[in-house]
Every structure is written in structure tokens, then in C-alpha cells.
Design goal:
single chain, 110 residues, mainly alpha, two-stranded antiparallel sheet, 4 helices, 68% helix
Length: 110
Amino acid sequence: MNQRILPIDKVRNACNSYLQKRTESMKQLQEPYIQKEMKGGWFRKPKTRSEAIESLYGDLWSKYNMLQLNHDWHTQKVNELVALCQTTYNKEAEVIMIDSETVYILRKYL
């Protein structure tokens, strides 16, 4: 597996930017499902936002939950890298070695 040595600060900033952007896009994709659940119907009364989200979490196979699982799957490796950066930063290291797959994920932010 190919690896690359990069400065810790640069990697940590790239990870935080990636996670922020990914979370924002996931919330934008989930918003229509929340709005749809909030609306009332013939036999349903309108729900508040928190009630709608709670209702959507009740159905494991809903598109809302699938978006959340997809988000968690794609961000797991980056979250692990953030923890690694924090641990090595506390030990006063200046560089970190990361694999090519992670570099590919963060390519826009490095």
C-alpha cells in the first residue's frame, strides 16, 4: 500500500473541512424527507420537526436512515484519522503518514 507523509496541521484541517462539507450535504439531502414527514395528510396531523425526525429514525430502511448510514460509512476513516492526528499532535509530532486511499478521499482539501 502506498503511503504519504504530510504535515499534521494540514491533514487535520483537511479532515475537518471534509467532515463539515459532508455533513452539510447530508443534511441538505435529508431535509426533503423531514419536510414531507412534517406535513399532515388525510389521516395524519402535522408534526413538529423533532417529532418528524424521531418518526423517520423509527424506520430503519427509510431513505432518511440510508443517507445517514451512507454518511457514517464514508466518514468513518476520516474520523479515525482526526483522532490519530490529535493523538500524535499531543506527542508533538509534526508529520503523519497516511495511506493513498485516505489521501484520495481528502484530495480536494489537501
